[in-house]
Design brief:
The complex is a heterodimer. Chain A is built from 13 helices and no strands. Chain A folds into two domains: 63 residues, no CATH class; 232 residues, MetI-like (MetI-like fold). In chain A, helix 2 packs across helix 10, helix 4 packs parallel to helix 11 and helix 10 runs antiparallel to helix 13. Chain B folds into two domains: 235 residues, Rossmann fold (3-Layer(aba) Sandwich); 134 residues, Nucleic acid-binding proteins (OB fold (Dihydrolipoamide Acetyltransferase, E2P)). In chain B, the strands form four sheets. In chain B, strands 6-7-8-3-9-10 form a six-stranded mixed β-sheet, with helices on both faces. A six-stranded antiparallel β-sheet of chain B has the order 13-12-11-14-20-21. In chain B, strands 15-19-16-17-18 form a five-stranded antiparallel β-sheet, with no helix packed on it. The two termini of chain B are 36 Å apart. Classes of the chains: A mainly alpha, B alpha+beta.
Chain lengths: 298, 386
């Protein structure tokens, strides 16, 4: 062994201390992030949440009854939330993509001004528009009043469905700026010559969108769909103000009230409800995860 | 098939701060039916803008573009019956080669699927890409993508092909191969073609006629040999030909042209062409100068010293300085001469350069206009002297 090389023992010791420290920090961070979730999960599975320390697993107290009760209580809220989130997410992504295409790849006068308005829209705080929006749907465009004959006469369509429709439109409107911006960054990188080639090939603006832009936007759609789904599903503010509780209540609004009259015993039920409510957003991540990574990378 | 006319075409870009930039200035060219015209010039000379105006991708500020007698100015690109090949190939990345080629026919015609299929197949076989039809662009090499881009233009069967530096992304070997192939295809199809390049070799080898642009203005439009032997001005003379023509500032004194390092006697005929001009630029192509070691005997022989030799194999580029008697120094103006590859020359060697008067070009110093050119009539045809 030459004198320049470090002896194996020395190397091992050096690496070992470093590694131990590294893994200790990593392990600590994992515990830091996962402990609250683990505690919540354990609490939700205990018949009496105070029978042992919150983070310890249930032994004799194990029960899934809280999940059954939470599911019963949230069931209708789930239906309403899906009724809201799926159309609102798809619509805002689709319209954001179209708006971004029109503002990026199509050349017309005044587009910079319109784009500036879109960007400004991103920074409007929800709290600031809460009252105007509820007034808007309450007295200026009262959809539920206008469509009274429809929900009175059509079986299966209820009055609160029009509140959900108002909420869909509201979420699409407020999600549109950020969706447009996300798509725009993606469209700026598209090859201009490709679009020009399509124009020379005889395709109209609409056809270029349909046959080139839309099929190429897949990864960005994954990003925007996940983002919007999570935003809209988790929203409480608009849901509470525009629809509130009752038949049309969203799952987040129902969750907020779940177990409130049960004092301390309600904690386990709340936890179970929270896990159920979070499940769809988790599934969306898993479902679109691969395209999401691709979209982030571009 | 149609003839394409550019009539006093100009393009002015207005920048955000109100600045006007003249990209194309009053360009007029007639491109005959089936002609292969190469627009050539340095980058930023307006050649791509001219092409994009023909395509309809840029508006025309002033003048008129006519295709087959019909004014194109206000027509949409898709109404112009034009196909374009882009530098980046601009293939549709999510479509197969077949779909790429069919796209234009689907969008611009009412052809049935069978007819489209048939035309795609025949264009693909013309380009030798039949076995690639099922692949996506990212699975193709640069050369194959280039062929698909050409195939996509051919399948449309347009009145005019426009090509924007289509070969510049290929390696040198493939480029010269595609050059020949492109020329053959254009000849077979007989479609009027406008080809943009900054590469004067492409311009010389491929074109029926060259249009040389500089700073938005048309300098000369003519056959490759006209542009080479009878350049209309100093810019064209310097741009066409590789290595470039040598230029010297000269002053007319009697029947002599006096440069910084040498004095060049001229004949009465040349003096007549010079007229009353006093300051000129003398141009001589590297291949027109002959070297010997016999010493200066004629009045057009000059003593020079070899500075640098660049061996190319088939020929040597020899950089010379005039032997003015003093010590050679770095500021001495060099000029380049090409000699046969079998002719060995070494740096530092004294040689005699013969600059024949019939090969000398003279340009007006201020306007750059040609005063005296080499005559095309001196060009020899193989087997007979004209």
């Amino acid at each position: 062994m030459s004198t320049e090389t470090v002896t194996p023992e020395e190397t091992d010791v050096g690496v070992d201390t470093e590694r131990v420290a590294l893994y200790a920090v990593l392990g600590g961070l994992v515990a830091f992030y996962l402990l609250p979730i683990e505690t919540g999960l354990m609490t939700s599975l205990k018949a009496d949440p105070f029978s042992s320390a919150p983070f310890l697993p249930p032994v004799e107290q194990f029960t899934t009854a809280k999940y059954a009760r939470a599911f019963d209580a949230l069931g209708h809220g789930f239906v309403n939330s899906f009724l809201l989130t799926i159309p609102a997410t798809v619509l805002s992504a689709l319209m954001g993509s179209m708006a971004a295409y029109g503002l990026t790849n199509v050349d017309w006068k005044g587009q910079v001004g319109i784009l500036a308005l879109f960007i400004a829209g991103i920074f409007i705080p929800y709290q600031a528009v809460l009252i105007p929006v509820s007034k808007f749907w309450g007295s200026i465009v009262p959809l539920e009043t206008w469509f009274e004959p429809v929900w009175l006469l059509t079986p299966g369509i209820e009055q609160y469905h029009f509140n959900v429709l108002e909420l869909i439109i509201t979420h699409v409107a407020y999600g549109l700026p950020i969706c447009t911006l996300l798509f725009r960054t993606f469209y700026l990188d598209l090859n201009d010559e490709m679009i020009e080639a399509a124009r020379l090939d005889g395709a109209s603006i609409a056809r270029i969108y349909r046959r080139l832009i839309l099929p190429l936007s897949g990864p960005m759609f994954a990003v925007v769909l996940i983002y919007q789904f999570t935003q809209i599903w988790n929203d409480v503010l608009f849901a509470l103000v525009l629809v509130g509780s009752g038949d049309g209540a969203m799952v987040t609004v129902v969750l907020a009230q779940l177990g409130n009259n049960l004092s301390s015993v309600g904690i386990g039920l709340k936890m179970a409800g929270a896990f159920l409510t979070a499940l769809p957003t988790l599934l969306v991540y898993i479902f679109f995860g691969e395209q999401f990574a691709e979209g982030i990378a571009t | 098939m149609a003839e394409l006319t550019l009539d006093n075409v100009s393009k002015v870009f207005v920048e955000d701060d109100g600045n006007h930039i003249v990209a194309v200035d009053d360009v007029s060219v007639d491109i005959r039916d089936g002609e292969f015209l190469v627009l050539v010039g340095p980058s930023g000379c307006g050649k791509s803008t001219t092409l994009r105006m023909i395509a309809g991708l840029e508006t025309i500020t002033d003048g008129e573009i006519r295709l087959g007698g019909e004014v194109m100015n206000d027509k949409e690109p898709k109404e112009r019956d034009i196909a374009m090949v882009f530098q980046s190939y601009a293939l549709y990345p999510h479509m197969t080669v077949r779909e790429n080629m069919a796209f234009g026919l689907e969008e611009s015609t009412s052809m049935g699927d069978d007819e489209i299929d048939e035309r795609v197949s025949s264009a693909a076989s013309m380009m030798g890409i039949e076995e690639l039809l099922g692949r996506k662009p990212r699975e193709l090499s640069g050369g194959q993508q280039q062929r698909v881009a050409l195939g996509r233009a051919i399948v449309r069967d347009p009145a005019v092909f426009l090509m924007d530096e289509p070969l510049s992304n290929l390696d040198a070997k493939l480029r010269s191969k595609m050059r020949t192939e492109l020329q053959r295809i254009q000849e077979d199809l007989g479609v009027t073609t406008v080809y943009v390049t900054h590469d004067q070799t492409e311009a010389m080898t491929m074109s029926d006629r060259i249009a040389v642009l500089d700073d938005g203005r048309l300098q000369q439009a003519g056959t490759p040999l006209e542009c080479y032997h009878e350049p209309s001005n100093e810019f064209v003379a310097g741009f066409i030909g590789d290595p470039s023509m040598n230029f010297f500032d000269v002053e007319v004194q009697g029947n002599q042209l006096r440069a910084a390092d040498f004095t060049y006697p001229v004949s009465d005929e040349t003096l007549q062409e010079i007229g009353d001009r006093t300051n000129l630029r003398l141009g001589i192509r590297p291949e027109d100068v002959t070297l010997s070691t016999d010493g200066a005997t004629g009045e057009h022989d000059f003593e020079t010293v070899v500075d640098v030799v660049e061996p190319m194999g088939d020929e040597n580029n020899v950089y010379l300085t005039f032997d003015t008697g003093g010590e050679p120094d770095e500021d001495d103006e060099t000029f380049v001469v090409t000699v046969g590859g079998m002719q060995q020359v070494e740096a530092g060697q004294p040689v005699t350069a013969h600059i024949p008067e019939e090969a000398v070009h003279l340009f007006d110093e201020s306007s750059g206009e040609a005063v005296k050119n080499r005559s095309l009539e001196q060009v020899e045809t193989l087997g007979k002297h004209v």
